[in-house]
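Weekend entry, working from home. Most of the wet-lab plans are on hold until the incubator is repaired, so I used the time to fold the two sequences that have been sitting in the queue since the last round of cloning. Logging both here for the record. First:
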Amino acid sequence: MNNELKKTLTPIQLWGIIVGMVISGMYCGWNYALDFTSPVGFIIAILIVTVFYTTFMFSYAELSTAIPHAGGPSEYASRSLGKFGGFFAGFSCLVEFLFATPAIALSIGAYINFLVPAVPAVVAAVIAYAIFVLINCLGIEAAAKVELAVTIIAIAGLILFVGAGAPHIKMSNILAGDIFKGGFSGIFGAIPFAIWFYLAVEGGAMSAEECENPKRDIPKGFILGIATLVVLAVATFFVTAGTTDASVISSSDSPLPSALEGIYGAGLLSNVMSFIGLFGLIASLHGIIIGYSRQGFAMSRAGYLPKLLSRTNSKGAPVYSIVIMSLIGMLFVLTGQTAVIIVISSFGAVALYIISMISLFILRSKEPKLNRPFKVSYPIVPAIALLIAFVFFVALIISNFSTVLWVIGAYALAIVYYFVYSKIRGTSAEVVEEGLDGEII
C-alpha cells in the first residue's frame, strides 16, 4: 500500500460525482422546511441559497484549479491560515459529509420500506451503506463509473417527475394558507433545508487530485454541475409544492412519490418514482463516501489524523479512510433522526464555506502570482458568497440553538484533539505536510 491517488477522472465523471453527491436533496429532506415556513417563505430561502451556491462554486473553482489537492478546503485553509486553519476546515468538511451520509442512508431505508414494508428502514439503510463502502474500495475509476450511471438514472427520474407533475401545477397550492407563516424566523429555520438542495456540491474538490487534467477539467465539471443542480432544484420544488398541500409534503419521507400519488392515485407511477428515487439517494450516498474518504486521506497525509488513513490499496483507493470513516457514519444511522442530522451537516457545511472564502481573499493577497487557470470576478463574487454564508451561520444558530450547542461542543473537543495530537507527535501545532509527490514541503 502507498499514499498516492490515481489520475483517471474525466470532466463528465467529475460532473457525475458533483451532481451525484447532491441529487438526493431533490428527492427528500428539503420538504421538512415546510414545518417552519410557507411555500412562499421557502421560495425566498431557496433564492438566497441558490445565489450563494452559484457565487460560491465560481469562487471555489478558482481555489480548486489553483490548488488541485485531495484535501480540498483543508489544503486551501492550511496554505492561507496555517495548520490550525487547515485542521478546522478539514474537520468542518468531515462534519458536513459524515452527517450528510447517515441522513441519506436513512432516506434510502425509508424508500425501501415504502416499496417493501417488511424490510425495516434502519436495517435497509445500514445494508445499503455497507454495499457502497465496498464499491468505493474498488478504486476511483470503478466508483466514478457507478456514480455516473446512477446519477444519470436519478436525473431521468426527476425529468419524469417534472413531466408528469407540471401539467397539474396550481399556484393556489403555493399561495394557500398563511403565506407569512413563521415570519423571518420561519425563513431562517427553512434555510438548512434549502441548503440540502445543494449540500456537498463542493465535494468535487476532493476529487481534484484524481482528475486527468485538473486545471482544465475542474472548471468544466464545477460550472456544469451547479447549473444542472439549480435547474433541478427549482423544477422539483415548484412541481411538488404546486401540486400538493404543504402539510402533506412536510410530513412525507418520500415527497415526490407522495405528490404523484396525490395526482394519479396509488399505483405504478408513484411506485416507479419511489424506485428511481433510490438511485438519486444512492448517487449521493456513494458520492459523499468518495468525498469524506478523500478528506480523511488528505488530513492523514498532512499529519492531522493517524497515518493509517492515508494508505491506499492496489486500486489506489484510500481503503482505511473509507472503512473507518464509514463506520462512524453508520453509528449515526442508528439514531434515526434525519431532520436533526441535516441541521448538523449544514452547520459543518456553512463553517466550511466561510473559511474557504476567507482563504480565497487571503491567498489573493498573500500569493498574487499563484497560477490561477480559472479566475472568479474578484472581489464581488466571493464577497457575496462570504456575506450570505455569514447569514446562514446566524440563521442556523437562531433557529436550531439546542442542536448547534452540541455541534459547538464537538468542535471544542476537536480543537483539544488537534493540540494534544500535535504535541504527542512532538511538533506542537506545526505539523509536517507532505506534498503531492510525497516530498516534504
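Second, folded right after the first finished:
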Amino acid sequence: MIVSHLSLTDFRNYESAEVELSAGPNLFVGSNGQGKTNLVESIGYLSTLGSHRVSSDQALIRHGAERAIVRARLEHGDRQLLVEVQLNRSSANRAQVNRVAVKPRELPRYVTSVLFAPEDLALVRGEPSTRRRFLDLLLVQLSPRFAGVIADYERVLRQRNTLLKTARGARITDGRLSTLDLWDERLVDLGSEIIEGRQQLVERLRPHVTEAYQRIAGASHRAELALQLSILGAQPDDDAMGDDDAGVAMLSTGEIVEGFRTGLARVRRAELDRGLTLVGPHRDDLLLVLNGLPARGYASHGESWSFALALKLASAAVLRADSALGDPIVILDDVFAELDEARRQQLAAAIGDYEQVLITAAVFGDVPAPLAAHTVRIRAGMIVEDDHPISGGTSAIEPGEVP
C-alpha cells in the first residue's frame, strides 16, 4: 500500500498543501521548524488516530482555524481509496472513505504505518507506560477489535479505582466491599485478554527484533524481549531498578486468569490503602534486553537508538506478514541525523524493499543516496522547488464535504 497523493487543509502550519508521493522512498528536506514532520505526522494520524508528538487533536489544527482536514489517496494493486478525516475544535471528528461517512475509529482498517521519530528513544529509556502504549497500538493495528477491549478495560479500571478511593476515604474494610468483587471479575476478563494478546505479540516480535538489531548494529549483538507481568509480582512502575526477572513468564490462558485473580487477592490490602489498582496490564512492562543486560539501564545512546529502531522495524515486519493491505508505510522522522554512517547504510538496506518509505531530514547529505531519489523540499509550510512554491493554493476539501 502507498499514499499517492496527500492533501492538507489547516493542519499544523499548513493552510493548504498538495503533495504527490511515489512508491519507494520519498525524502522531505527542510530546515527545522518548517513543517517536514507535520506532513508525515498527518499520515501517521490516519493509521493510529493519534500524534506521536502531542496527546490532543487540538494541537493539530492550525492556529485560528476551526478544523483541519487530512485527505490521502491510497493505492494497493489496482485498488484506490480516498481516505479523509476532519478534526474539529468544538465538535466530534468526522471521517469518510471514498466519500462515504465512516466512524473515525474505522480509519486504521484502511491505513497501516510504522513511524519512528526522535521521541521513540523513550521506548528504551522511558517509563513502562511508553512501552505499553507501543504494544497496544501495534496490537490494535493487527487486530482492530482490541481497541474496544482496551477501552472497556480502561473504563472498568477507572470505576474500580473510584471505588477503592471511596473505600479508603470511608475507611471501609475489605469484608464490606462486595461490590469490588464484581469489578474484579470484569477486570480479570478484559485484562486477561489484553495480557494474552500482548504475549502473543511479543512472541511474534522477538525474532524480528533480534534480526533487525543485528542488521543495524552488527551480528555480535543480541537484542531480546520479555513481558513483565504485575500479576506475577513485577512492579515496573513502582521500582524501575528492581528484579528484571520478576514476573517474566509465558502463561496459558487459564494461567493468566488464575494468576490475575491470585494477584488481586495478594495486593487487596495495599490497594485499599492506596486507593489504586496495583495489578493488571496497566502495570506491566516490556523488558528490553541487550547482550544479557536490561537496555534501559545499560545501553549507550547509540545502542538505545538502535534498539528503538529495531522495535519499529520488527513492527513493520509483523504488519507486513499479517496485513491484507500489503506493506505498512514506513515513516522515518529525522532519524538519520542521529546515526553514524555505518548505521545509516544498514538502516537504508533494511527498509529498501518496503513499498513506500517516507523520510524527513534537515540535511540532505544525512540520508543515503538510494533513499533520496524522490525529494520534496519544505519551507515555512510550503512545498517548494528551486525556491519557488509549487503548491498551497486551493483547499484539500471543503469543510462541508465531510458528512
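Plan for Monday: verify the second prediction. Residues 2-112+323-401 form a domain with the Rossmann fold fold (CATH 3.40.50.300).
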